[in-house]
Design brief:
13 strands; about 170 residues; seven-stranded mixed beta sheet; six-stranded antiparallel beta sheet; mainly beta
């Protein structure tokens, strides 16, 4: 089971505070999952309502961090897209109603408990306050997706990212 109920307040409390930094030191995770494929591996880490990914393949390595600390660590505010040297990043930020937020949270919890290659961190205060990640081997590299759910009074915000890396 890779659903982790975390007894710690989220550090990232708004989607607007998120940034992206690539190939920087990653913070200590609250929970993590490592997936291996031969000598290649990807580690999916839940931070304080944010994430870090460390992937290695063909003797190369990349890190990705989406968090409120990413800009301070040398990154930039969360872009809609970014690419460089075999790496591609895309993100969407959607404001949703409470029903959509709850349905998404329930689906992510099921994925994390029923499907290999998923990790989900649940934060206290609201059952929809989640960070979820999944990854799979992709043509010599890795592909991963993430969801960051930020509940609000009448709904919430869902930040989704999709990344692909081929060294």
């Amino acid at each position: 089971m890779t659903l982790h109920v975390l007894d710690i307040e989220s550090r990232d409390v708004t989607a607007e505070a998120l940034g992206l930094v690539v190939n920087a030191e990653t913070p200590l995770p609250l929970a993590e999952l490592t997936i291996t494929h031969g000598d290649d591996r990807v580690t999916l880490a839940v931070l304080g309502a944010s994430h870090a990914v460390t992937a290695s393949a063909a003797g190369s390595r990349i890190t990705e961090q989406v968090s409120c600390d990413a800009v301070q660590a040398g990154g930039r505010p969360l872009p809609v897209s970014d690419s460089a040297s075999g790496y591609r990043f895309d993100s969407t930020t959607d404001t949703v109603d409470r029903t959509h937020l709850e349905q998404t949270a329930d689906w992510l919890r099921r994925q994390a408990t029923e499907v290999d290659g998923w990790i989900c961190g649940a934060f206290p205060g609201d059952h929809t306050a989640l960070t979820a990640l999944t990854a799979a081997k992709d043509s010599g590299g890795w592909a991963w997706r993430t969801w960051h759910l930020y509940p609000g009074d009448k709904g919430g915000v869902i930040v989704k990212t999709r990344s692909r890396w081929q060294p």
